[in-house]
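On clarity, I found the account of how folds are encoded harder to follow than it need be. What matters is that the chain and its backbone geometry are given together, residue for residue. I therefore recommend that a typical entry be quoted early in the introduction. An entry of this sort, consisting of the sequence and the corresponding backbone structure tokens, reads as follows:
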Amino acid sequence: MVLFAAARLRQTAEVIATAARALRQLDSEGAQSDAIDAFLDRSGTVAEQLEAAHARYAGAGEALHAYAVALRQAQEEAGPAAREHEAAVADRDAAAKLAEKYEGMALVATSEEAQRDYDELARVQRLREDEAGGRVVTQGRKVDAAVAALDVAAEAAIARFDDVTSDGLVDSWWDDVRGVASAAYESFQQWMEENDAWIQLLTEALGYIGLVLMLASFLCPFTAWIGVVATATMLASTATEAARAAAGTGSLMELGISIVSLATFGVGGAALKAAAKTSVAKVAFERVAELQRGGVPLSTAVEAVNGEHRGIMDGPLDLRGRMRGLGDPELGRLSTWSIESTAALARAGAETVARLDRLLVAGTALRAASAGVTAARAVDASTGWLDPLLGDLRDATTLRIENGTAW
């Protein structure tokens, strides 16, 4: 790997040198052209910068190549020595255990002959222990010497790098930021690739949890915290999909579906309800005007209309209202208000009520669409049933980032 990096530095240096020679040659050919003259006014400085860059890359390549040679030599010397050192340690420890064993048996021997035999066996093992210990020291010194030589080579390479980078050429702050960002992204992408198996399982689980909570919010409209938890779960799922899409382990299509599911359940429905509330105010004005045309004083008409509106918005919601709001109690009450207003506005305000009805129907349809999209997405995450319908769209919308190339 180090040799490969050194070769790339040298090749880069050669490319830079070729570019510098081409600029110098253009300057010496004496071609006459306003464009060429304008270019040559700057080419001298560019050529000088290129030559400085060539010296930097060539010097860095040489330094890295010298270090690679020292590294290979250290590996060749230290590798066998390290293996021999490991074997010697094992031999020494085994001999020491046997020596201790025989020495213990000599202490409890029942006869002088048996004691002499065990003492001799222990002496032999102590000799083997000393011999193996000598090999441990010898091979250890070889490893230490190889590492020390490599450290010297590393210091020389570092000094050479310091010399070649003191040429006045410096990166801009943007180059530095981009370099840090690129390194951070590579680490992020590698982590996402290595952990994609459990992240994908997490995404599937979040999808099903979000679907269950969404359906629960439809069936239990008076339990407001369910909708909040459902939205939070969908946000976590969308964030996970965004991370997978950015790392190239997930597709932009899956992220788009997740965003659509979240938007229709939360932001889109809230926007439609806000517009519906504006229409409710207009319908209230129409109803007040209707009562005035029937001879009711303004204050009495306003109080009557406001009282009825409060009664509907604060009162109990019947089954039909729940179904019209598809689990959203506020949407269901607004629908009930629209029905009551349609009956009350006998002569005028039909267009205003019709606009309110369109907004309410759109809100309900949006919630139904959100449930459908969320269900399809949750099932597809674990079964892939959409693959035959989408063809290659999933692969086409997956980022392929290789060797640092841009998206």
